[in-house]
Each structure stands twice: as C-alpha cells, then as structure tokens.
Amino acid sequence: MLEDILITIATAATPLLIAAMGELVVERSGVLNLGVEGMMIMGAVTGFGVAYATGSPWLGVGSAIVVGAAFSLLFGFLTLTLVTNQVATGLALTLLGLGLSGMLGEAFVGLPGIKLTSIHIPYLSDLPLVGQLAFGQDPVFYISIILTAAVAWFLFRSRVGLTLRSVGDNHASAHALGISVIGIRYLAVMFGGACAGLAGAYLSLVYTPQWIENMTAGRGWIALALVVFASWRPWRVLAGAYLFGAVSIGQLHAQALGIGVPSQLLSSLPYLATIVVLVLISRNRRSTMVNTPASLGLPFVPDR
C-alpha cells in the first residue's frame, strides 16, 4: 500500500519536475516564459497522436519534444527578436496551445492510448517496498532525475552555465563582454520548450495514457510557481515537485476514503497549496530578491 502511494506520487511529480526544470533554465537566462501550459498541452496531443499513428511511444515522446521546442521558438522570435512583452506573449502562447491542441486532438478523444512501458530489472524490481519505486519506474522518471542533476551541474559547475547566469543577472554587462545574449537566450528558451513538450508527452503516454482535452489541468502554472518556490535552485525544484505531487495524490486518496470534505475542495488542494507557498515566499522579500535573476523579464536590444 505504501509503495503504491509512493509510486503514484513519483508519477504525479515527474511532469511538474521536467517542466519546472526547463523553465528554471529559461528564467536563469533572464527570460520569463509564461507559455509553459501551452507548450505542455501541445506536447501531450502531439505525443499521443504520433504514438497512436506509429505504434511507438518513443516516437511520440520525440515528436512532443520537437513540437515543444518549435512552440518555444515562436515565443523566442516574438520576445527576443521583435522585443514584444514577455508576459503578454507567454499568455498568448498558452491560449494558442490550448486552442490548437483542442482542435488537433478532437479526433483522438476516446481512442486507446499506447503507454510507455516501465523498466523491470530482475530481482531488484522485486525487492519489497523500494523495488518498484527505485527500479521499476518508467524511463522518463529516471530521465527527470538525471535532468535535475545535469541542470544543477550545468548551472553551477560549468563555464557555459556561469555565462548563462551572467546573462540573466546583467545582460548589458554580458553583452559588453562580447557574450551573445540573444543567442544564449534562444537556446535556453528552446531547452525550456523541449522540457515542456516532454512533460506533456508524459501526461498522455504514462500518467494517463489517453488524450483528454485540457489534460494538463494547470500543471504548467504549478511548474512556474515551483521555480519561484525553489528560489531558482534545481534540487529545491525536485523537492517542491514531489511535495506538490504528494498533495495531488493525497487529495485523490482522501476522496477514495470517503472523507467528509467536498470533492471540489479536495481537487483544488494542489492549486491552493501553490497560492499558499507563493504567499509565504513573498513575505521574505530579501531572500527572494537575492536569488532572482536581476534581468528576468527585461527586454534586451543589442547595440547596433
């Protein structure tokens, strides 16, 4: 029973972790992309559609990553090249993704999904309590953990990561030193889009192997909140994702046990938790400002 609960928490946390990790890199470069929800839902519908058409969930995953990155390029072109408002453009990207996914996914409603199978390691996967949790998960779960470690190393141990953080902290000084601010931000935005696409594919190929309109259900917004909650630190994002995953699964188990609380209130718990966490974080303004990239959301126009 406990192992099953822990496995479902890990499954619920994985798409949040992947999407938030991509957005963390984007914001570290000084760009605020509020289109995570739109990129996730496009990844979900693309992943399901390609997997259903080809019979290969891995082709679905790959296609979702490509579509997420392509959507992010649209955001990058508008905000980095045409210097449009990042907040408004991100919101427009989310609305575009939700509308377009609904249109494309209309033919997929009710179709059986193709699930990405879990890994089974003989003997290890059969261990009590930790067997399935540590050695019997789906491949994307392990990718999410590796991704967290890779992003942490990249940002704080590599020279390129230091360059990216310098762009996010002071793009004018970075440009004066000869760093291609726009180029680095384009790459960061594409990485964030690819992660959002992968997170969306996880929803339609692993978490709920079918297509349901608006199946992201606000997870993109939770991923955005997670980045702030974690103070732009990768390992804190991991902890936050699993905390929110536990809240999501907890409300489902509470409903199954028939606890005398309205189901609507229980379903809203993940979003209420997001609001509460953001309110608590905002009270310590000094700590928040220390870790916030100084150029976050600010437009940059290089000298001509």
**Alpha-carbon Rg, integer:** 19 Å
What percent strand? under 5%
Largest sheet: none
Return residue spans where pLDDT drops below 50 for at least 5 consecutive residues.
none
- Structural category: mainly alpha
What is the total number of structural domains? 1
Q: N-to-C SSE series?
A: HHHHHHHHHHHHHH
How helix-rich are the residues, as a percent range?
over 70%
Tell me the total number of β-strands. 0
Top-tier CATH class: Mainly Alpha
Query: Which shape, going by the Cα principal axes?
Result: globular
The CATH topology turns out to be ABC transporter involved in vitamin B12 uptake, BtuC
| Overall mean pLDDT | 89
User: What is the level-2 CATH architecture name?
Assistant: Orthogonal Bundle
Termini separation (Å)?
Answer: 63 Å
Query: How many helices in DSSP terms?
Result: 14
